[in-house]
Amino acid sequence: MKLEYVAPQEIEQRSFEIITAELGNKKIPDEIRPIVLRCIHTTADFDYYENLYFSENAVSIAKKAIQSGAVIITDTNMAKSGINPSALARHGCEVMCFMSDPDVAEIARQNGTTRAVASVDKASELNRPVVYAVGNAPTALIRLCEHIQNDTFRPELVIGVPVGFVNVIQSKEMLINSGVPCITARGRKGGSNVAAAICNAILYMLDTESKL
Fold this sequence. Notes:
Elements: H1 11-23, H2 33-43, H3 48-51, E1 52-54, H4 58-67, E2 71-74, H5 77-82, H6 85-90, E3 95-96, H7 102-111, H8 115-123, E4 130-134, H9 138-150, E5 157-160, H10 168-178, E6 182-185, H11 192-210
Parallel strand pairs: 2-3, 2-4, 4-5, 5-6
Antiparallel strand pairs: 1-6
Helix pairs in contact: 1-2, 2-11, 4-11, 7-8, 8-9, 9-10
């Protein structure tokens, strides 16, 4: 197998060329194409062509939310660190994660819940528009759905891509049925890297639109 020389600044572009070639004649609607391709690029997993679910107008809703000053909340510091800080700055967007906050740890201990649940409750008190990105904890997604059902917290958009085996599939279906605008990956696959990739794709789409 012969190595292919690619200049460092061209590696990402070459990767997307390979992805596009391997997708062949598979059609992806233009509105969601950058997100689907970036998820495949991040994971090298072509299953994301089929398992990504977008509620009606989810991408345009996400872009409008960010343009209107929504804060992105993540359920892991890994997802937070994976969102491009330069892209965030270009759009005046802030990203937060409460998982390491001492008050979150204490509330979770007192209530016998996960810190992910306590983080959702903390986010519900921000009184500002939120895009909530879940890449790890189905308990966060379940708690979000409870808030949505009780009309106590309704994010502008939920990115629900927790990975794993316990309540992962169920929590994603709860999200889809909640009525909140959402992007999710049906099945067991996902992760903090996928949550960050979706956020980055949306920010990069805004970059492209700002140049038109």
